[in-house]
């Protein structure tokens, strides 16, 4: 997996509102820290080689946002609309993203690490070389997605909904859930641990397991 190509010492301190200085809503080679961005609506903003650190986006709508070589550290993007986003070499580290909407987006070399994605939406998306690491994904909607080289490590998947999505080759064994809404055809080729296998046996086959 490729990481964002950023040389931090060459980044210029900036404000998110500098994006309005460009007619095409463009930010590049910037570092933004400790900023509060509220109720902004921008269609197709383009951000490249930029680090966001402890930035809060509140009730923002960035439809068709395009991110290339971008890192978010300790940011809050909860309830933001990022529909039809294009993410290339993007990392979210220790970010709060509850209820974020990433429907119909394209992911290529994207990392979510120690994030909160509870109640979020990633539907009808195309995900390639994307990893979810130590991330909470409770009550998340993850439907009708195309997946290629997707990794889950130590994630909370409780009450997650995964419909019309093939999970062949994916490994859930290090993750946890009490219940999950999933289709039988979707779990073919999915790697699970013994506890998860017992859950699916009960869920699909109504098998009673004795111990």
From TrEMBL:
TM region positions: none
Name under which the protein is recorded: Pentapeptide repeat-containing protein
Natural source organism: Companilactobacillus huachuanensis
PANTHER family reported in the protein's UniProt record: ANTIBIOTIC RESISTANCE PROTEIN MCBG (PTHR42999), PENTAPEPTIDE REPEAT-CONTAINING PROTEIN (PTHR42999:SF1)
Classification via Pfam families: Pentapeptide_4 (PF13599)
Domain of life: Bacteria
InterPro entries: 5peptide_repeat (IPR001646), PA_immunity-related (IPR052949)
């Amino acid at each position: 997996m490729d990481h964002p190509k950023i040389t931090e010492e060459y980044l210029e301190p900036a404000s998110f509102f500098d994006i309005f200085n460009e007619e095409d809503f463009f930010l590049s080679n910037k570092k933004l820290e400790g900023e509060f961005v509220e109720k902004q609506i921008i269609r197709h903003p383009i951000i490249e080689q930029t680090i966001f650190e402890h930035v809060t986006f509140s009730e923002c709508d960035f439809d068709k946002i395009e991110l290339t070589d971008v890192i978010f550290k300790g940011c809050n993007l909860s309830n933001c609309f990022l529909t039809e986003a294009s993410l290339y070499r993007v990392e979210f580290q220790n970010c709060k993203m509850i209820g974020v909407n990433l429907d119909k987006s394209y992911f290529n070399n994207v990392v979510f690490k120690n994030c909160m994605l509870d109640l979020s939406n990633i539907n009808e998306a195309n995900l390639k070389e994307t990893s979810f690491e130590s991330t909470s994904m409770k009550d998340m909607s993850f439907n009708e997605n195309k997946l290629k080289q997707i990794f889950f490590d130590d994630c909370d998947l409780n009450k997650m909904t995964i419909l019309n999505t093939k999970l062949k080759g994916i490994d859930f064994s290090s993750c946890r859930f009490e219940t999950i809404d999933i289709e039988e055809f979707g779990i073919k080729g999915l790697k699970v641990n013994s506890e998860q296998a017992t859950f699916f046996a009960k869920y699909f086959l109504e098998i009673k397991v004795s111990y």
